[in-house]
């Protein structure tokens, strides 16, 4: 969590950095700050949303062309101004010698803090981060060979830090340099084209924050320090060995990271789903045939798959298990990454780990990837951000092609994950000789219809979704029920409502509801029942009867022409029916995404930046 940005160039650094922070605020948004060098360090920091910092800078701009900035998701210490980054060195001659921004956790901060206090440093925050500028100042102004040299100083300090981090530091004595280092948290250097013999140099936790200034980027690996100057960037290991970090053209455009005609990123990303799925599907088909992904492994030899994922990606994995079991007859386990990483999983020949992650930076999933690799289990990543750490550490990557997902609630990445998993299962079935040419043609036809069905479902369900949101926006609890492929939809519908509308919500497998949770049902409880025409519809209708018999308010999600569902439900959210019922959950979730959005708006919640959350969970 937390976002880091840095800028050196001819433009006012504060103006560039505030836009960069805007693009990074999905990583944390409880407070923000920046430091700009101009003779000395000029600091601006504000608790609360980024607007508080932007207002402060409007009222009191900082004149300077080199600076670092940070948007925070609090770990150590509440989101007060004192705990905002950047943090400065403080105490006697150390005061103002260096400013630092940090993403990650310094595990040995307590020990370092005590040592630094003894050397005369004065601490002003409760953060773990503050030990970094203090440590840097004591080295920079000390008497070792690193003194006076910013890169040598950072290198010497890194040798003392334990934990995972990305850091950036500026020294007023070196007004056109940013020294940055990465150990476990992402960091990217960007550079513009040369204009009038000069370049703009940028630094950020993620690519969108480099736009529109940079046109090329280089990704830092763990254990690398970079010395950024207006003339370019020099990379080396923590121990001083030069590193060649190639710059590549940035493919993402500034348009892709703006809201366009929408008020929120969540609305934009929900609306983008037809084009996202069309792009993904075509990337995996050639004519009427499936193309086997280039994963560097023989899918025919895989007989056991472990999915690792968190949150929404975990819900996608639950359906991935159905797809692989049904189509390719492969044994699949679905593991929550934070659980997997602390077990001692059994590795056997033929096992494949598939890490599913929109961001590709989720700390628990990354730790699971590393654990699997340490056991010599092949790992592939199903990721949206192909420059991410998981994408780079996995042996093969299945990209989602969903474009930047910025709203904290995952929407387009979820339906892309489901579609990608369905295609992956079909490809595994084909590799194992379990998909006849006729079945392959039918499957390709079914999947190609999906983008159109997504579009019509979003359009046709909207008025009913609004009606249900008007009726139940004030309800303090909501239950979601589904069976088979719709059980993950129920979990995902509940997660969306919890995270952006702060409504207590639970998803259950409908057959399990009678084993306790049905006691919650009252005439006030909205129960959203996923009941499309699939093989478990009859069973689901019986479960709905059980809720109705106890006076629960039934909102059905199913086909518009389903008379039985209509008779049982107070209201029905209509969804299209795909050719293959395995694809139904991709359509059933759509009205629930819109429902969560409408309820959040009615409850006056910040849809894109719900409280207490961050888009990328890079701490465990
Ligand atoms: O980037 P990842 O897919 O690894 O993220 C996993 C979860 O943090 C994420 O899905 C989270 O649950 C979303 N906020 C859900 O909308």
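^ structure tokens above, recovered residues below v
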């Amino acid at each position: 969590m937390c976002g880091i940005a840095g800028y050196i160039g001819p433009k006012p650094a504060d103006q560039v950095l505030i836009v960069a922070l805007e693009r990074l605020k999905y990583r944390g948004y409880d407070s923000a700050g920046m430091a700009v060098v101009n003779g000395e360090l000029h600091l601006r920091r504000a608790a609360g949303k980024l607007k508080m910092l932007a207002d402060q800078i409007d009222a009191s701009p900082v004149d300077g062309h080199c600076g670092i900035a940070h948007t925070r998701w609090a770990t150590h210490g509440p989101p007060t101004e004192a705990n905002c980054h950047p943090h400065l060195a403080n105490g006697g001659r150390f005061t103002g010698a260096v400013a630092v921004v940090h993403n990650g956790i310094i595990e040995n901060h307590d020990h370092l803090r005590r040592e630094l206090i003894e050397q005369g440093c004065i601490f002003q925050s409760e953060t773990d981060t503050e030990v970094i500028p203090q440590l840097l100042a004591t080295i920079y102004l000390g008497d070792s060979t690193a003194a006076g040299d910013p890169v040598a100083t950072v290198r010497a300090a890194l040798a003392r830090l334990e934990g995972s981090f990305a850091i950036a530091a500026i020294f007023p004595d070196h007004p056109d340099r940013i020294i940055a280092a990465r150990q476990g948290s992402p960091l990217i250097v960007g550079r513009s084209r040369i204009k009038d013999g000069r370049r703009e140099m940028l630094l950020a936790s993620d690519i969108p924050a480099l736009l529109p200034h940079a046109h090329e980027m280089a990704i830092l690996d763990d254990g690398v320090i970079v010395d950024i100057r207006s003339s370019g960037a020099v990379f080396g290991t923590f121990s001083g060995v030069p590193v060649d970090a190639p710059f590549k053209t940035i493919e993402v455009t500034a348009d892709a990271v703006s809201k366009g005609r929408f008020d929120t990123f969540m609305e934009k990303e929900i609306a983008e789903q037809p084009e996202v799925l069309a792009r993904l599907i075509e990337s995996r088909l050639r004519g009427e045939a499936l193309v086997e992904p280039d994963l560097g492994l023989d899918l025919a030899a895989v007989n056991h798959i472990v999915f690792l994922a968190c949150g929404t990606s975990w819900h996608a994995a639950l359906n991935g298990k159905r797809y692989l079991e049904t189509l390719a007859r492969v044994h699949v386990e679905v593991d929550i990454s934070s659980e997997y990483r602390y077990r001692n999983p059994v590795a056997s020949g033929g096992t494949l780990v598939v890490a599913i992650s929109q961001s590709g930076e989720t700390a628990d999933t990354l730790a699971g990837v590393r654990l699997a690799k340490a056991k010599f289990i092949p790992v592939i990543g199903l990721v949206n951000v192909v420059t991410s750490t998981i994408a780079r550490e996995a042996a093969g990557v299945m990209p989602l092609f969903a474009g930047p997902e910025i709203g904290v609630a995952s929407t387009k990445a979820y339906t892309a994950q489901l579609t990608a998993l369905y295609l992956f299962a079909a490809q595994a079935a084909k590799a194992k000789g379990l998909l006849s040419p006729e079945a392959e043609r039918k499957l390709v036809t079914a999947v190609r219809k999906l983008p159109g069905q997504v579009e019509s479902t979003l359009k046709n369900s909207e008025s009913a979704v609004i009606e249900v949101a008007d009726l139940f926006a004030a309800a303090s609890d909501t239950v979601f029920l589904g069976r088979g492929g719709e059980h993950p939809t129920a979990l995902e519908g509940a997660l969306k409502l919890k995270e952006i509308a702060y409504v207590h919500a639970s998803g259950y497998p409908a057959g399990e509801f009678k084993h306790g949770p049905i006691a919650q049902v009252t005439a006030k409880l909205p129960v959203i029942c996923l009941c499309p025409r699939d093989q478990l519809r009859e069973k689901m209708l019986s479960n709905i009867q059980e809720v109705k018999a106890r006076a629960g308010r039934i909102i059905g999600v199913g086909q518009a022409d389903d008379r039985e569902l209509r008779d049982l439900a107070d209201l029905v959210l209509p969804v299209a029916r795909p050719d293959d019922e395995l694809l139904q959950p991709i359509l059933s979730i759509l009205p629930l995404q819109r429902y969560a959005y409408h309820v959040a708006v009615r409850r006056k919640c910040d849809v894109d930046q719900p409280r207490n959350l961050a888009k990328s969970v890079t701490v465990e």
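DSSP finds 17 helices and 27 strands in the chain.
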